[in-house]
Amino acid sequence: MKKVILIIAVIGLFVSPLYIYGQTVNQPLNISIYLDLSDRIINGKGESQMLRDTAIISYIIDCYVNDVVRRKIVPCNDKFQIFFYPTDGINNPSQLSKDLTLHLKDYTTAPGEKKKKLVSMKKDMLSRIVPIYEQTIQNKQWLGSDIWGFFQKRVKTLCVEEGYRNILIVLTDGYIYHKVSKLQKGTEYTYLLSSNIDQPNMKLMSCNSGLQDLEVLFLEINPTQFAHYAKIQNIIGTWLQGMGVSNYQIEETDVTANITPVIRRFLNK
Predict the structure, then answer these.
(1) Rounded to an integer, what is the distance from CA 1 to the centroid of its chain?
(2) At what angle do helices 49-70 and 2-14 cross, to 10 degrees?
(3) How many angstroms from the chain centroid is the CA of residue 265?
(4) Helix pair angle (2-14, 111-139), 10° resolution
(5) Alpha carbon 12 to chain centroid, angstroms
(6) Which positions of the chain have pLDDT values less than 70?
């Protein structure tokens, strides 16, 4: 695990993040990262999916920290969190959620503690994430992800804070499925798989509304067939629009050096 975290730290040295200029004055950042722990984590091309995901997380944390430093740490109330949904199979999910969340407003009376948290943030979070990937791969018990159910039940409460610039980054292969949310009504589905993506007029069923204050970036889309990429973009994009999300982007998997500029441009919008 230490070796993996060292590799990510080295990647961070070569991929220097820029500051985030998208938010207005007095508008703090609220960045959420959703990790898909399905069997996608063993289906990556080239380098392991764990390394790809953790390199992306590392870069986003660097962008977040640098932006807080640019705006001066003491007055900042920015929020950053990483999560899995559902949390079945994860030991002590409540503690994990706490460890993977940093809300600077909790340290308004202790500015020195804010700086300390920011300095150790990347190391602390990666040290919690890497073992979950390693254990999942070793056990071959894929926790999966319920992206549709998350947008239905949790996205507003977990990812949208009033007065913040709310950004949700989803790391997934683009196929959406979980047994607890499986439903079909005509050509509308709560899941997106190779088995139904080619169905005429196929759509993801709408599950929410009023998400105008949420920006969404899907990364690491990795379809089993090349032709599915454009379909995944269209289906997920239409679904997000239907929920009110106006600023969104859906990007296929690529080497880290090609993904970081995509992240930077999205954050700088």
Answers:
(1) 21
(2) 50
(3) 16
(4) 120
(5) 18
(6) 1-19, 21-26, 44-46, 143-144
- What is the rounded distance in angstroms from the CA atom of residue 158 to the CA atom of residue 121? 20
CA 189 to CA 175: how far, in whole Å? 12
Structure tokens at 21: 């200029």
Asked if residues 102 and 80 have their Cβ atoms less than 8 Å apart, the reply is: yes
The 10s digit of each residue's pLDDT in 127-165 is 999 998 998 888 877 766 899 999 999 999 999 999 999
Residue 206 · residue 242 · CB < 8 Å: yes
- Per the structure block, which two tokens stand in for 111? 């500015």
Rg (CA), the chain: 18
d(CA 254, CA 266) in angstroms, rounded, equals: 16
> Torsion over CA of 233, 239, 244 and 249, rounded to 10 degrees?
-20
Q: DSSP H helical segments within 206-251, as ranges?
A: 228-242
Alpha-carbon gap, residue 191 to 197, rounded angstroms: 9
Q: Tell me how far apart the alpha carbons of residues 224 and 227 are, in angstroms, rounded to a whole number.
A: 9
- List beta partners, residue 214: 166
Sequence-distant (6+) residues with CB within 8 A of 225 are 194
What is the full DSSP assignment across 73-86?
A: TTT---EEEEE-SS
Q: Which two tokens stand for residue 55?
A: 């390199």
